[in-house]
Amino acid sequence: MPPTPFSLSRFFRENEGFLRNRWEASVHHLAANARRIGSDPMIFGEIGKLLMSLLSLVERKGTAEQAVDAEFKSIVSNLRDLQDRHQLSFTETVLCLFLVRNILRDIPPETLPPEARGEGGEAYSESFEQVSSLLNRLGIVFFEGSMRVKEDGGGGRDPLAIEYALLYERTRQAAITDRLTGLFNFGYFMDRLKEERMRAERYHRLLSIALFDIDHFKKYNDAHGHPAGNEVLKKIASILKEEAREVDIVARYGGEEMVLVLPETSRRRAVDLADRVRRRIEKTHFDKMETQPLGKITISAGVSTYPVDAGNEEELIRKADQSLYRAKSLGRNQVVGSEPLTKVTLRYRPAGAETKVALVGNFNNWDKDVDVMERQADGFFRFDIALSPGVYHYKFVLDDVEWILDPACSENAPDPFGGSNSVLRVKA
């Protein structure tokens, strides 16, 4: 018989001890290098100088993009010198950059001087954000540069590897970023929305979007000029980025409209987040805002959720836009969530002494704290929900502990964990 061909996956499955030993050795080596970096005052001093120069550069040029355009060669040259002097690997250099980035992101506001926390503190916050972004991108391009060296072969460094990688990253960022606000642009938003919608469909999860529009923005532009309007756009974009989670996508939809893509987020959670943004903008000071009809800068927002409100990304946008229009027609400065016309009532009567029944399913991200059913006088727990036509999976949760099928439902479907879900078919 011919010999069995070698399989790396089979080798690792059959030699778990070998894999574990190599894992522990690699982690120990990385930890030892991290301790060496952390205990070397020279490295700390030079990283501190690098941070000061980056902050000064961004403050002079205005944005991380402009800083890279102006002086990326000198930035990279300084980093390479730091590598050589302290014999740092590419991985260790990237670790240093990301450590400084995390420091900037995690600075508690109360540790900053009073002038950085008041109404005039936006510049400080924006500088921190710009340098954090620059450090993040420098870390990425150093990694890209190390890959280029490995692909080219040989032990030496290509003197242009990092510059090429940095220039590539700058070009890629420019292609997907709105230059004024720093948010992702419309094309990137549409691409990512499609990806997230397909992922939500594949894993039976939710996907929400929140579409924002600045109230009476044309009047502000007409009264004070487009440069003043651009400052409003940039400040609101900054607030959106700060309120968004790491997994969320913040983009400029067009004109004065911006959009949040919220993976694995129910309609109710999305409305809450959008309203938090609305309240914060309402309380933010903008130059000459007293001339606006409401005496301040405000936004309206519309929210929609897949698959509760829409079956695809185009319909999801249309439903969010309809909700935004409704928020405008109701007086502006508010958030409206889409609500389908089809209403469904689900009921459950416990056999025991349960005091709480929650409805969970792929229409609320299986969150037992979102849709708690109301107890009726006849002993039934009831919940009314609006859903677009489609097929949904659900269960009941009793007293936050026991997850059960709906005994009144005759159709079940397997879940990914070896159990079953009740099936709800909603017709138009």
Structure description:
The structure is a single chain. This protein has a 5-stranded mixed beta sheet with strand order 2-3-1-4-5, with helices on both faces. Strands 7, 10, 11, 12 and 13 form a 5-stranded antiparallel beta sheet that branches. It has 3 domains: 40-176; 186-337, Reverse transcriptase/Diguanylate cyclase domain (Alpha-Beta Plaits, 2-Layer Sandwich); 343-426, Immunoglobulins (Immunoglobulin-like, Sandwich), CATH 2.60.40. The radius of gyration is 27 Å and the shape is globular. Helix 4 packs antiparallel against helix 7 (161-176) and helix 5 (90-105) runs antiparallel to helix 6. Residues 118-123 and 154-159 have low confidence and may be disordered. By secondary structure, the protein is α+β, with helices and mostly antiparallel strands. The chain is built from 12 helices and 13 strands.
CATH class of the largest domain: Alpha Beta
Uncertain spans, ≥5 residues at pLDDT below 50? 118-123, 154-159
How do the helices and strands follow one another from N- to C-terminus?
Answer: HHHHHHHHEHHEEHEHEEEEEEEEE
Biggest sheet features: 5 strands, mixed
Average pLDDT figure: 82
Which overall shape is indicated by the principal axes computed on the Cα atoms? Answer: globular
Proportion in β-strands: 15-25%
Radius of gyration: 27 Å
Helix content: 40-55%
CATH architecture of the largest domain: 2-Layer Sandwich
Strand order of the largest sheet: 2-3-1-4-5
Structural class: alpha+beta
How many runs of DSSP E, i.e. beta strands?
A: 13
